[in-house]
């Protein structure tokens, strides 16, 4: 294990050098001390060179929990940002959805959790797409990814109940697949403590799911609980996809592996307690992008660019220009 000349990057395997490129950088892009505005989502909109993020939970003036969605304008220097007024309840993870954004609404005591589509342009109109599993309400939908067949895969842990803004859970903590085209919804994987981040490998033959059971929503931490990334094969039976061959892909030694993404070479990136950790497709820890305080989520921009969400701060990471995120391929 060696440290690179550039502070903030740590190499565990020589293959990480190709990812870093010749001159990697780590730049503080924006800071907001009033509240933790940069917690989750991280949705890069290439057409407008903007970034949409969600805050950590806040206590509103009426005593109710809330989350802000913020649009960051990357065309200005320094960058500017604005809070978005939407109806998405307790927004968390998000992903590009055509010209729109798909947000995970965790829900509240009075509003359903589920998948919400929001326009990426003013007035940022939003609508609930799916909010229950055959009549049983979701717990607090956390993160989401879209398959090339347009099916939507998402995780549903019980953090909302533990953090006292959702009713008692009526479903196990599971991974789901919703097909708007077919009008079907299926439970795809169970057996998690707290399923959290989710992504596909570039060829969509593998699904990665993070289990953040080490940290419960009430603040308790237990090092003997899962802080783990699981990999599943996507197998087809009778014309339908199933998640098979569940295996432990990686264990995060610092904090929990939260948001998760792949690059086009199949390397796996996850936001952890010390920043962003990077593994090879074979589960070998290649290196770390060290950010004090850790990273809950992040997204790729263009040509090796990563936007890392660090609660009160957003960092821009520049890796080698050949690195491209699998989600957008930019």
Outline the structure in words.
This protein is mainly beta. It has one domain (8-318): TolB, C-terminal domain (Neuraminidase), CATH 2.120.10. The protein is built from 2 helices and 30 strands. The chain has a 6-stranded antiparallel β-sheet. It is globular, with a radius of gyration of 18 Å. The two termini are 30 Å apart. Residues 2-6 have low confidence and may be disordered.
In short:
This is Calcium-dependent phosphotriesterase. The chain has 330 residues and is mainly beta.
List descriptors.
mainly beta; four-stranded antiparallel sheet; 2 helices; globular; disordered N terminus
Report on the biggest sheet. 6 strands, antiparallel
Arithmetic mean of pLDDT: 96
* Uncertain regions spanning at least 5 consecutive residues: 2-6
Text of the CATH class: Mainly Beta
Please identify, by name, the CATH architecture.
Answer: 6 Propeller
List the SSEs and their pairings.
Elements: E1 2-3, E2 9-11, H1 16-20, E3 25-31, E4 40-45, E5 50-54, E6 58-59, E7 65-66, E8 69-73, E9 80-84, E10 91-97, E11 100-105, E12 114-119, E13 126-130, E14 132-133, E15 136-137, E16 144-146, E17 152-156, H2 159-162, E18 174-179, E19 184-189, E20 195-200, E21 206-211, E22 228-237, E23 240-251, E24 260-262, E25 268-272, E26 275-279, E27 285-290, E28 297-300, E29 305-309, E30 313-318
Antiparallel strand pairs: 1-2, 2-27, 3-30, 4-5, 5-8, 6-7, 8-9, 10-11, 11-12, 12-13, 14-15, 16-17, 17-18, 18-19, 20-21, 21-22, 22-23, 24-25, 25-26, 26-27, 28-29, 29-30
